[in-house]
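Backbones bend. Our protein:
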Amino acid sequence: MIAQTWWMTHRQLKALLRQPGVLIITLVQPVVWLFLFGNLFRRIIDLPGFGTASYLDYLVPGVVVMNAVSANMWAGMGTLEEIERGTLNRFLTTPISRAAIMNANVIVQALSTAFQSAIIVLLGWAAGAHYPGGPVGPIALVIASMLLGAVFGGLSNMFGMTLRQRESIIGLSIFLLLPLTFLSTAFMAKDLMPGWMQNVAAANPVNWALESARGVLAQHADWSATLIHGAWLLGLAALMVWLSTLTFRTYQRSV
């Protein structure tokens, strides 16, 4: 299983390295969010109870997780391309583990998300953001973005293999991205949100990623929040990967 996963991952990484511009181009939108929202809403910290001295410090984690959702919601497009080219069906005639194929998708998406998240963190730092918790905070943020990406990458792959329509993946991305982001603490402090939004945010995986990262981004780390929300996120990511593997087996029986 490990060796097969490695070779399938190696195959996808080689394809990604042949078109590195994809990773850079997809960074344009989160960079716009970072600098546009960072300047547009910088006075929002004057609201009583916001709890931070710099909106940019608060915004960087929000942009990182928003990018993780946005980028990974398109993972199913790659699966559709494999189906349309017949590549996926050819793999079905080999003794390779079906789980290895899906695991490779998750690993490649996680590495891509980690790269993009690190770039956003560095751009935020260059623009004046501070990470008083030291390097542990940004590292935790990158890891949280990878887990969140696995959640939505698995969901996107499930839709891709089940419906096999690009429009369904596009519609899913549009439907989920903004509501999940704005029903979290990505751009607004929890204490300033309406009560019903706070309740929704408590069950929102986007918010779990934010809470797990912000727990150690602060000067005084809140490891309990980090570990609790991180465990929820890890459990959900494992569940979505498992479900996407089951969906793959369903696809296999249909061809």
Q: What stands out?
A: DSSP finds twelve helices and no strands in the chain. The first helix runs from residue 2 to 17. Residues 2-13+32-40+53-254 form one domain. The chain has one domain: 2-13+32-40+53-254.
